[in-house]
Amino acid sequence: MKINLPEEIEKLKDLQAGDFVEISGTIYTARDAAHKRMNEMLDRKEDLPFEINNAGIYYVGPTPSGDNIYGSAGPTTSSRMDVYTPRLCDLGLKYIIGKGRRSDEVKEALKRNDAVYFVAAGGAGALLGSCVTKAEDVAFEDLLSESIKKLTIKDFPVFVGIDTKGRDIYED
Prior knowledge:
alpha/beta
């Protein structure tokens, strides 16, 4: 299935764990350090550096390359962001791309908010990087590869890891 996000956000409810999806549209990058800073901003009642409602986050840091706009773009282990994810989902985050298992708290937050966790193939960073058609700096440039960027992606291949009903490919 092909889906354009966030424009076709309502289609997330139709996806089932294990479905293969090619995503086009926009997504923000954020890893550990950026999540920590966003959480601190929320604690201080500050606005996040991007509109979180109906947005997506990809847990990735680029490896510079002369061949691609973004370089190699393989996913990082998602469980490191589990402490932050429920809060972001409750604020409107709708789709996440990473790799590996998620906690029960994240699964419940995904269900509660009709959000989806997509799994990208580890070791396929060059292929995934070739799906990035544009990359823009958004925030925390001092974090270098862990800064927040807005990516435009085309036909980005993923599997539904956890669907909006909480079904999990790692357990079901």
